[in-house]
Description:
By secondary structure, the chain is an all-alpha fold. Among the domains are: 12-63; 94-146. 72% of the residues lie in helices and 0% in strands.
Amino acid sequence: MPTPRVGANRGFVDDVVIGLMLLNRARRRAVEQVFGLTGLTRDESIIITLIALAAVARQTGEAAPVHKPAKPHPSNLMLAAGVVKELGHQAGGAGSRDIPGFVGLIAFALVWRYHPLARGAAAAARESIHVAGASERRIRAAYGGVRSSPTG
């Protein structure tokens, strides 16, 4: 009968299971020593551990003050914009510096591709342009279609 071969995956799973068993045993011993309780069943030990963790979490949540993040200073925003621009040019290669607004175009393309509101906003803008054009045509038709010169 051939001996079954133990692969790296099976060895890893065995190590994880043994590690969890050791951690569970250490947790049960800690519960017994800290709370002075002996002869606990597995379920009782788990319940006491969960109660202790809930109490610690509650105290930690009450003790930690909640701070509102400060607004970034304009100089920090400018520095971050410069870093993003340089990173975009590094990713785009040497030819990207010849294209004006290269990083802005990439950012717009990413927003256009991955943000669901971007396409709706663009459709609304196109609709507004069509409405404005139709209004201009109606006004021109009503007033005889005379276009005024931009210089007056």
